[in-house]
Design brief:
Layout lengths: L19 H10 L29 E2 L2 E2 L39 E6 L16 H18 L3 E6 L30 E4 L10 H7 L4 E7 L1 H15 L2 E10 L3 E3 L2 E3 L1 H15 L2 E3 L1 H7 L4
Parallel strand pairs: 3-4, 3-6, 4-5, 6-7, 7-10
Antiparallel strand pairs: 1-2, 8-9
Helix pairs in contact: 4-5
Length: 286
């Protein structure tokens, strides 16, 4: 089976990919032409059943390509009996530049006091990221679109930060919610786990999420992957997220590298990853 030539959408993502096969793979999984019969494209499919993705195994060069089975947003039907009809394929998902703010919600994740310089678990660039989150908050509020805040608390008072009922676990003053903006309390990395987040979104008919907050390598990564698995279109605003230095095998990994690694991974197959300025410039004028 021939590979669809969808390389045109890769260059605008801002992520360097030198290997031709990897470039083809990214084009396929990030919204290039759908693979399948022409009459299947554009048919209505419930987003809980099938996201935009790859319907059949593609060929990259002379080597059979089965890697898409590993990408959870793309529901492979490799083991499906040939006697059963294939599920319909959706047309390519619009990028953030093509999608107006309608049916979008801004998700503000864990911008809480302990992540700031005087807190128990300060992040690198927390203030700058929060300032960009404020710009997005203002844009969504002015447009009358939903905003949902996520707030984390650990269940134990022995936790290193975000202890129950502490000042450090409160939302930072820069991003305090308005009375009409729900605050979802979570106890896990995944904001959907054992919370009402999905119910809040579905009640309002939300199909696309714009994600900001912290930490890039934990709860931003967690909500983005979970949301994509649930069928939401996800945009991550990379300069409205913050991380911190990590350690692996005795080596310190600087926060900038941690952040870049996770943003590039999410941008590969789970989300559109753009800056605050790029996202706001793509929105329709009031």
């Amino acid at each position: 089976m021939a590979v669809v030539d969808a390389l045109r959408g890769v260059s605008g993502l801002g992520l360097p990919v030198a290997d031709p096969q990897q470039r083809q793979l990214r084009a396929l999984v990030l919204g290039g032409n759908a693979i399948g019969d022409a009459e299947q494209i554009g048919q209505t499919v419930d987003r809980r059943q099938l996201c935009t993705g790859i319907d059949q195994h593609a060929q990259l060069g002379d080597c059979a390509f089965y890697a898409h089975c590993q990408f959870s947003p793309f529901y492979c039907r490799c083991g499906q009996s040939s006697k059963r009809p294939c599920a319909a394929i959706l047309a390519p998902t619009p990028t953030s530049e093509e999608t107006p703010m309608a049916k979008q919600a801004l998700i503000v994740v864990d911008i809480q006091n302990d992540y700031f310089p005087q807190g128990k678990w300060p992040l690198v660039g927390a203030d700058a990221a929060a300032d960009n989150a404020v710009k997005l908050l203002q844009a969504f509020r002015e447009a009358g679109h939903p905003v949902v805040h996520i707030r984390h608390e650990f269940t134990s008072s022995d936790a290193p930060f975000f202890t129950p009922g502490s000042d450090g676990a409160k939302l930072h003053p820069k991003v305090l919610n308005r009375s009409d903006e729900p605050v979802v309390l979570k106890h896990f990395v995944n904001s959907f786990r054992e919370t009402e987040l999905q119910s809040i979104l579905d009640q309002q008919g939300i199909e696309s999420l714009v994600v900001v907050g912290s930490m890039s390598h934990m709860c931003i990564d967690g909500i983005t992957r979970a949301a994509a698995d649930l069928g939401y279109n996800v945009t991550v605003i990379h300069d409205a997220c913050a991380s911190r230095d990590l350690e692996f095998n005795g080596q310190v990994v600087p926060a900038a590298q941690v952040h870049a690694a996770f943003m590039s991974a999410l941008g590969f197959a789970y989300a559109s990853v753009v800056s605050t300025a790029e996202f706001l410039a793509a929105q329709p004028s009031a």
